[in-house]
Automatic annotation (TrEMBL), chain A:
Keywords (A to Z) from UniProt: Signal
Keyword Signal appears in the UniProt entry: yes
Signal peptide bounds: 1-22
Protein name (record): Nickel uptake substrate-specific transmembrane region family protein
Pfam families per record: DUF4198 (PF10670)
UniProt source species: Lysobacter antibioticus
Source domain of life: Bacteria
Length: 269, 171
């Protein structure tokens, strides 16, 4: 396997999130409600068209950040990356809610060198050295994306929802590990720590392979950044929202692309 | 919601406390199931208020003899009980939890002054019985009853994981 190519494909996929043609990135938990401390959660991490099938590229495990209910960082175990998916285990030794996340921060640039179109991607700190001196028509954009899922042992807790004030973040009104078919859940979305009004949220139930339509639920956040969704049936759900603005951290970047993805499990009544 | 809770409160103010005592008898049938792999079901029985909050936990039968308390792993499969109260409890719960039961009828009775019932204000409640079986199904039955005003002989018939569930209120 060509790791460089793989990494490039994944980065490109992350970068594309938000366009109509985007693939879907996701972390799919084996289950989200546990009654026993010391249980194991196993997670699949991939990018694909279908939910939740492994038919495109895996997500790279280097970006994984697992937060325990007490706020400490947890190391994934038995991590492996195959052609189509990554997989890893998490030992749940505490009571409360865990967050499993992959964060992507990057800078993308198009430029011309001697009349030839070139592309560059990397960290913001590498930008200056990464673009050759003779480059013209440099057009850079910044991206900040999160892919998350949650699992709870015992009583749901909210410590892992502490926000950083950077990019798009989800604040639970209804706890993501307390979702039931036929009930309405409510969440708030923040951009840079402030309630994000007018964000379009797309929610798609899993098992798309076994039906003809996406059956997506489209909602828009209100002035308070909140949105509601009534879960039509039990199952895993994929949620995504994206946003673009000019609030870049680098003067070279003209635009900033933000994305947020979460996978929720909805249980039957 | 407001109105009904008001109605509930009225008798409490009119009747002197000692007159409120009633006993409750519960009979839970665990049906015979022909399965290649049969495990005794986990069963929870509790009393709910109108808003689905738990007024009292009556019984939780689970695999409590497994080493290292591993039987708690499947408590979440009684998913409504788990949601309503199980996840906030520290198992085992004295006087509530017990071992899984075999196929047959299981009678459990509670005295009005027992820990399970003493705190129950007069009013309308629902008795809920939920059963979940490893490698099997799940079923939940609900029986509304009135506490403790009058004698009641109520029942519900399960279809899969539960047989007949009977509730007798004896003022």
């Amino acid at each position: 396997m060509n790791l460089k190519l793989l990494a490039a494909a994944v980065v490109a996929t992350f970068a594309l999130a938000g366009t109509a043609q985007a693939h879907k990135a996701w972390l799919q938990p084996s289950q989200t409600v546990f009654s026993d401390k010391g249980s194991w959660l196993t997670v699949d991490a991939a990018v694909s068209n279908d939910l939740f099938y492994f038919n495109h590229v895996p997500l790279p495990l280097e970006r994984l950040q697992i937060t325990a209910p007490d706020g400490s960082s947890v190391q994934p175990q038995n991590g492996a990356t195959g052609k189509l998916r990554s997989v890893f285990d998490v030992e749940l030794s505490q009571e409360g809610t865990y967050k499993v996340a992959m964060n992507n921060e990057g800078l993308f640039a198009n430029y011309k060198l001697g009349g030839e179109a070139k592309r560059w991607r990397g960290k913001a700190s590498e930008f200056k050295s990464g673009i050759p001196a003779g480059a013209t028509e440099v057009n850079a954009s910044e991206s900040l994306g999160r892919v998350e899922t949650f699992a709870t042992v015992g009583k749901p807790s909210t410590n892992v929802f502490k926000t950083t004030g950077k990019g798009i973040e989800l604040v639970p009104v209804t706890h993501p590990n307390d979702l039931f078919a036929g009930e309405t859940a409510s969440f708030q979305l923040l951009v840079d720590g402030k309630p994000a009004a007018g964000l379009k949220v797309e929610i798609v139930p899993g098992s798309t392979r076994y039906r003809d339509q996406q059956n997506e639920i489209n909602v828009t956040t209100g002035n308070d950044g909140k949105f509601e969704v009534k879960w039509p049936q039990a199952g895993m759900y994929w949620l995504e929202t994206t946003s673009e603005d000019a609030k870049t951290t680098l003067p070279e970047a003209k635009q900033r692309r933000l994305s947020y993805v979460a996978v929720f499990e909805v249980l039957p009544q | 919601m407001k109105l009904s809770s008001f109605k509930v409160l009225v008798p409490a103010m009119v009747l002197p406390m000692p007159a409120l005592a009633a006993d409750l008898e519960l009979n839970i049938e665990i049906p015979r199931i022909n399965a290649a792999e049969y495990h005794r079901p986990y069963v929870a029985a509790w009393i709910e208020k109108a808003d689905n909050s738990v007024a009292s936990n009556l019984a939780v039968w689970y695999d409590l003899d497994m080493k290292n308390g591993e039987g708690t792993k499947w408590l979440k499969d009684m998913r409504q009980w788990w949601r309503r109260s199980g996840r906030t409890l520290q198992m085992p719960v004295d006087g509530v939890s017990g071992a899984t039961r075999p196929v047959g009828q299981h009678a459990v009775s509670f005295k009005g002054n027992s820990k399970a019932l003493a705190g129950l204000a007069p009013g309308r409640y629902t008795l809920v019985v939920e059963a979940a079986r490893e490698v099997g199904g799940r079923e939940m039955l609900t029986i509304p009853f009135e506490w403790p005003a009058k004698a009641q002989n109520l029942s519900a018939q399960g279809k899969t994981e539960l047989g007949k569930v009977k509730v007798v209120v004896k003022p």
